[in-house]
Amino acid sequence: MASQEAGFFMASFSICIKAAPQASGAAHGLEFAKACIAQGHSIVRVFFYGDGVYLGLKTQALPQGEICWGKLWQNFLVDHKIDAVVCIAAAVRRGIVDAAEARRQNLDIDLLREGFVLSGLGQWIAANSTADHTMSFG
Amino acid sequence: MASQEAGFFMASFSICIKAAPQASGAAHGLEFAKACIAQGHSIVRVFFYGDGVYLGLKTQALPQGEICWGKLWQNFLVDHKIDAVVCIAAAVRRGIVDAAEARRQNLDIDLLREGFVLSGLGQWIAANSTADHTMSFG
Amino acid sequence: MSPLFIFTETPNNNTQAREGVEALLACAAFDQKPTVMFIDQGILQLIPQADQIGSKNLNKMLQALEIYGVESIIVCANSLARFGVKLAELKPQGKLITLSERASIIQHAAWVACF
Amino acid sequence: MSPLFIFTETPNNNTQAREGVEALLACAAFDQKPTVMFIDQGILQLIPQADQIGSKNLNKMLQALEIYGVESIIVCANSLARFGVKLAELKPQGKLITLSERASIIQHAAWVACF
Amino acid sequence: MALHLLASIDIECVARCRASLSSADSLLLLGDGVYALQSEETLTSLTAATNNLFVLAEDLLCRLPHLDTSISVINYAQWVQLSIASAPVVSWY
Amino acid sequence: MALHLLASIDIECVARCRASLSSADSLLLLGDGVYALQSEETLTSLTAATNNLFVLAEDLLCRLPHLDTSISVINYAQWVQLSIASAPVVSWY
Questions:
Q1: For the residues of D37-78, what is the DSSP string, one character each?
Q2: What is the ipTM of this complex?
Q3: CB contact, 8 Å: E83 with chain D?
Q4: D51 within 8 A of D57, measured Cβ to Cβ
Q5: What's the whole-model pTM score?
Q6: Would an 8 Å CB–CB cutoff place D101 in contact with chain E?
């Protein structure tokens, strides 16, 4: 909820990223989120949905001269201890599995970047209900 | 090259798949390729490019009632011993790594479906030069 | 004020329409009383489809929206005209609106998600 | 007959334009003498861009096409008009064609790839 | 002559395909392209461009199962034959 | 009132955003949406819908570095403030 602190009006945001890693929405969302934090606002949660779940895939390796938006998102989310949820249904359908989901396929791997967790759409709905402002990118 | 065999006119195809796994081009390409083989035509190579490289990601797990086009592509390509090349640049950029590419990231994994190999765009150009017909999907 | 889902995509082309419906159902399950608005190519989701082997029929999921708590279904009349579709051909049918009503519906939403 | 690449997408929105250019360069490297045709939003790739930190400038790659063996560059005049862009603003400039010439160029291609 | 594959009903993609066709070319509607049959205006524009118009049976039956159409409905096997008889094949997705 | 984000120059997406705007709403052009400034026809149509038109500086400078424009150029910090002052925010990608 909105709160008055030290004379500033502080707002809370729920952010949903539906853009694939190299699509413009992935960059817009990250730069917007950084600007929120820089102004002292809070981010309730970042929810990755649709092709946005690929931002959580840790094996991306970009050629020189291209930005790895998944890595930049990870750095930002970890640095600011922001809750980062990747939609489990959208992720598993696309092959983005954490250790638990990989085990169901008898694979001993974890493809999810550290700092991200798989969970359900309820996490997005709950964040939207709590936050002052809901934004989606992509 | 086109050849006359047993009274039929046999043609050769080079097929490029640029559609993501759940996009319609992935299905169109597979059903078209099956129809080619059923008529006795040959497929020089299937080249996966753009978001089509996700068809080679072996960790996809579809919910009940949804088709895993990557698995169906794999079955078809292996059954008919068709050369299946995933563009290495497009794949690595998206995080689809084979054992060799994973090793560069110090990871002991292989995310590529069996029957697919990573290689360069030259494989697509060469197939297009050889085949009677070049088709792309997605 | 309730959440508004705007559906603009065809049902079968990729996962976007399906993931929109899944998000809508999740919202309804949390008792948020969402409204859903079908515009442009999105109205094609409301045309009854034939079942396909191995593939969930998205239109059948939409026909069950009311059961799942999505009671406010809005359809853009201009989009129907573009595709030569009559309201009677749609399932579910929803409430017809004109272009001039759209901005106001959006302004009164708690939050908006487009799929 | 030579291969034809048709570019229809904006330069920065996703990887499609970039992967189209990479495919075109591979084709030229195999000495196939490809033709490239810019239509619709694709003509926006020919507007010189500012360099961005950490991101390759796609337009600069296009300015080097001739060096890499892509000598036939075609631009749709109607698409320029749509965006109010003049040929003189483009790099590289390419050869202007009208809509009525497009079908014939496609028909005479060895094979066609759209990006 | 060329075979054009139209797999979208997006205004811009339909217009692009239409502008790339000559009357000697063939056009196959598939995927979301089959919705062109639902829109009088779109269909008129495409038939004005070429008489050699086809629609893929499987996608028509899935998307518009109740639609009657006078244009040629073909299956994958016929599509392969049409591709062999045409050059080049161009995909508009 | 609402804030609309237009991140595409696709004809259908622009028309959809335009049809969803009222004169009280704000519109921010970002990503490929900045190309609307390049097209006289598109820009006229959007300014007829609302006077509260903004463009994201970073995307304008990247895509159309030499363009002069009379509409308000804003940065990410100003976009955050605009979002707080509006409700709801709608994304057209």
A1: EE-GGGGGGGS----BTTB--HHHHHHTTTTTT--EEEEEHH
A2: 0.97
A3: no
A4: yes
A5: 0.97
A6: no
